[in-house]
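During the no-cost extension, the postdoctoral fellow (Dr. R.K.) reprocessed legacy sequence entries with the updated structure-token encoder. One reprocessed record is reproduced below for audit purposes.
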Amino acid sequence: MAAGGAAEPGRRALRFHKSAEWYNRGSLPQMEHPFWTWALLCVSAFLAGAVNSIAGGGTLLTFPSLLSVLGPVQANATSTLALLPGSLAAAWGYRRELAECGPQLGRLWPPSLAGGIIGSLLVIRLPERVFAGMVPWLLVCASTLMLVQKPLAQRLGAHPHAAPSAGTLAAIVVFQFFVGVYGGYFGAGIGILMLSSLAFVGIPNIHQMNAVKSVLAATMNGITAAIFAVSGVIAWKYAIAMAVAASAGGYTGARLARRTKAGYVRAVVVLIGFAVAAYSWWSR
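Re-encoded structure tokens follow.
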């Protein structure tokens, strides 16, 4: 693992280099004024935390902004760690909903953790292009499933408050494992992938789905962040400030989402999913 740890930041940086191209086909220009540098980083982290508390995709805001002051390796590592507290803050913001989802969380946390570990190890072994080519397809499929989620659940005989069948539960556990693998390897859009399936484990509404999703995302991202911390590639002064901003954004987003009609939140989820997929295709 020690030898792999040295190679991992470079591999992960390669896969995120295309994320920078979504903004400017290359590295962003270096910012010279400290105030605007910190303003850009903190605002992007706050918005990313809020976006992650609803659907995911916050990396699309933090990573490119960090490229204005860091190289791709440090930008990727710092972004991963900075967004981790935001997931925890979002989960705390949804604590009332989370208290009602203990059984579902207990079933999905182990495959999320195992998948995140395996995904991080696969970064060392597999070329970046393998998963990068899958990203837009995964996001389009997940967003489409969100669109047809209610009628599909009715057609399959699923009821929001009913316990899933053994076959449905097994399929979702396996799906969550692969989401964990994807999260450990690449990560962008894992929230949308999880939200597309959580209705089928007996979670009754979008706010409870977001609560469970926040905890599971923090589990996956925590494994990756730990690897980066051990590797010594995190710019801590930026990571700490952005983590505070992302935490505030995650908590704020969770509070605002709870006060919004579930249909509106679901629409935001779908729009974010298709937007991330479009960016993925455009950057190829």
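The first helix runs from residue 2 to 24. The chain has a mean pLDDT of 76. The remaining legacy entries will be reprocessed before the final report is submitted.
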